[in-house]
User: Which sequence fits this backbone?
């Protein structure tokens, strides 16, 4: 079993939809939970992160962490075609290691 | 601070040639990482530095790969005798290295894409 599991998609939604992206993990020592957005042939861009637990909101984006279920989510409200990208989750604890999901490809249709 | 910078952005080379990539991390970050990413996959860890010390190397890093971070600032990743299987995006990232800061997250550069013909 991988330490971090993420559905690769692709996920296609109409413009304006609410998008839910998810990752599950097995290591209870993880403290940092990150979401990256990656456009084709570009480096990953840090979108949001949560330290320890709870929710965080930034504009149209909300990150949630449920440590009891070992489950994290990224919600995108009022999705736009410009949100079409691959979304990577990543996690780390009190070590140098950052563990990544494989990424979910999202396509928002105009 | 302009973030993590990588150079060149794209390199096309012939099999058997040597290539070198450079990374300039965020200046106050003491940890620097190299990752490799192929199409449809998440980043795969190659190696990391804490200041100038290279503390961990992945099994993916064959003896044709070498990384340095002289003086704990910029880093270089050299691939000798390139093979077609080396074609990938090489990503550099940096982090503060302070677990308890609440901000110990990884910031990536734009990547250096290698194409080996």
Assistant:
């Amino acid at each position: 079993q991988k330490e971090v599991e993420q559905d690769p998609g692709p996920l296609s939604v109409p413009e304006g939809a609410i998008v839910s992206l998810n990752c599950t993990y097995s290591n209870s020592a993880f403290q940092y939970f990150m979401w990256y957005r990656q456009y084709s042939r570009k480096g990953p861009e840090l979108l949001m992160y949560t330290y320890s637990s709870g929710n965080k909101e930034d504009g149209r984006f909300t990150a949630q962490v449920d440590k009891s279920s070992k489950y994290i989510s990224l919600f995108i409200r009022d999705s736009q075609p410009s949100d079409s990208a691959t979304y990577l989750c990543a996690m780390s604890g009190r070590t140098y290691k950052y563990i990544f999901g494989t990424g979910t490809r999202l396509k928002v249709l105009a | 601070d302009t973030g993590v910078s990588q150079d060149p952005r794209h390199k096309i080379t012939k099999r058997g040639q040597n290539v070198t990539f450079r990374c300039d991390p965020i200046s106050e970050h003491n940890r620097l990482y190299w990752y490799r990413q192929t199409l449809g996959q998440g980043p795969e860890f190659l190696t990391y530095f804490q200041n100038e010390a290279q503390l961990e190397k992945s099994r993916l890093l064959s003896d044709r790969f070498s990384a340095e971070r002289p003086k704990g600032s910029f880093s270089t990743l050299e691939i000798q005798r390139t093979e077609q299987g080396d074609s990938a995006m090489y990503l550099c990232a940096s982090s503060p290295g302070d677990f308890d800061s609440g901000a110990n997250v990884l910031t990536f550069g734009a990547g250096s894409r290698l194409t080996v013909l």
User: Anything to note?
Assistant: Chain A has no helices and eleven strands. The interface with chain B takes residues 6, 8, 31-32, 34, 36, 41-46, 49, 51, 88, 90, 92-94, 96-98, 100-103 of chain A (CB under 8 Å). Chain A has a mean pLDDT of 93. The two ends of chain A are 37 Å apart (CA to CA).
